[in-house]
Design brief:
The protein is an alpha/beta fold and 243 residues long. It contains 7 helices and 7 strands; from the N terminus they run H-H-E-E-E-H-E-H-E-H-H-E-H-E.
Length: 243
């Protein structure tokens, strides 16, 4: 039987370069940085940084970059990297002792976890009171998915099999393509509920695309609920505890 650990070992889903989503991550980091003293060095944590650690290549000189992901090592020499299986191990328990972060990146991670709740609690612990968490996840309520369901086709992002995408009818929609390891999926509303439940406040949301479908950018400007993907900028809610 193929285990989830074997799936992670066999599949490198690293983003090779800045894409539309990571461009938003970078701009939000730089926006936050511009609100602080220019001489201040920030400590960054990239959860699920991938073997290429793309965001580390674009950090401001002097900022400290920490990354964690499943591979035993990554291509780039960064300030600190540790290997972790986010489904079995706590980020807070394995991060360097006493370290707190100004900016935490968490891109396309929570949909791969049995307990995204536990990860967000860990990240709230690791985030400095004035820091930000930049988080993204695909949107199950994507307008294309709503249309697909009307004609009985399994929505994009949903994976019924551990090995192959099913219910898509045609190869164009991904039928029989290898899975990406999605376990939990969120509508825009469900993502906001989880964020609030785990003690964060939403400062800003920016919708982005997954595929280069011509209407997607327009739809994203009109509705986060119908967009393909959303990037959330979050802050800790003072005194908040999980419900």
């Amino acid at each position: 039987m193929r285990t989830y650990q074997q799936f992670l070992e066999e599949r490198d889903s690293s983003v090779p370069e800045l894409n539309a989503r990571l461009e938003i991550f970078l701009s939000e980091y730089l926006r936050y940085r511009s609100s602080l003293r220019p001489s201040r060095s920030l400590r960054l944590l990239d959860v699920g940084c991938g073997s290429r650690a793309v965001l580390a290549r674009h950090r401001v000189n002097g900022d400290e970059y920490h990354g964690c992901d499943y591979p035993p090592r990554i291509e780039l020499d960064v300030d600190h990297y540790w290997s972790i299986d986010l489904n079995t191990t706590s980020v807070a328990d394995t991060a360097p002792d006493g370290v707190r972060y100004d900016v935490v990146f968490c891109g396309e991670i929570i949909e791969h976890l049995f307990s995204p709740d536990a990860l967000l609690r860990d990240l709230r612990t690791l985030l400095r009171p004035s820091g930000i968490l930049i988080l993204s996840t695909p949107n199950l309520g994507y307008y294309v998915n709503r249309l697909l369901l009307l004609v009985g086709i399994s929505p994009l992002y949903v994976e019924n099999s551990a090995e192959r995408k099913l219910g898509r009818k045609t190869r164009l929609l991904g039928q029989n393509n290898p899975t990406e390891g999605h376990i939990r999926l969120f509508t825009y509303g469900a993502a906001k509920d989880l964020i609030a439940r785990e003690g964060f406040e939403v400062e800003r949301v920016t919708s982005t695309i997954t595929w280069n479908f011509p209407p997607d950018r327009l739809v994203g400007r009109l509705s986060h609920s119908l967009a393909a993907n959303n990037v959330f900028v979050l802050r800790r809610r003072p005194g908040a505890e999980p419900i």
